[in-house]
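WARN no homologs supplied; continuing
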Amino acid sequence: MAASLVSRVARGVAPRIPGEQVLKSKLSTVTLDVTGTIIQFKGELGDIYCLAARRCGEECPDYTKVYNGFKRSYQEMCEKYPCFGHNTMPTKEWWRRCVFMSFEYGGYHYPPTTFEQIFQRIYSAFGSTRAYQAFDDSLPFMNWIKERNIKLGIVSNETERYGDGILPMFGFDEAIDFTVFSKNVGVEKPDPKIFQVAARCAGEENPSRILHIGDSLKKDYYGARSVGFRALLIDRFHSPDAEKWRQDGIAVCRDFEEAKLW
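OK structure emitted
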């Protein structure tokens, strides 16, 4: 017992309180965030935008100009059409407008036919493994959860496209029992409603039997805690704030192997 405690402290993991393992065994459901938790973007946004433009006979846009244009466009679209348009427009149209203004704000003005060709290549790339990669421990962790007869769900501020195509690309779909995307429900984390939807999907009336794991302190940790879920923050990229979070009593793990200890 003492050796185990010393080991956890040495690794920067908060020590378990007496009886904690008994409590953890009562979990009925684990929900996961997506980006930064089970998958990550690879390369740069400019790589995909540049390749798409060149394949359509245009010069490679300046990465910085396009990226800054994208940030401005994305923010404006989120403010005007939150949750990727929810039920006001299809996901693809939302992204078509966002990409169009990204180029426009970056100083690149393409004829409609040329832009549509470029956009189709960009949209296709962001539905493929060219844009994403899974963390090595994600699928093993999901399978570990399922082996313990615990339901597994996804709660993400993303579109249904992740559930339809991106997550299945990595073989995650076979382990997942349900998905909750902001596009479908019309609210985003940390809004309590998206977690309440997840609880209903899980068929769980006792929120303390659900554990949510994600990489955002505000959206994932505090969002989940606001409705009574248990919450665990995953710090894959070694945030300089992680130690302060731990000191403040926030449950933080470095990866899914460490998450198993919780």
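The radius of gyration is 20 Å.
OK
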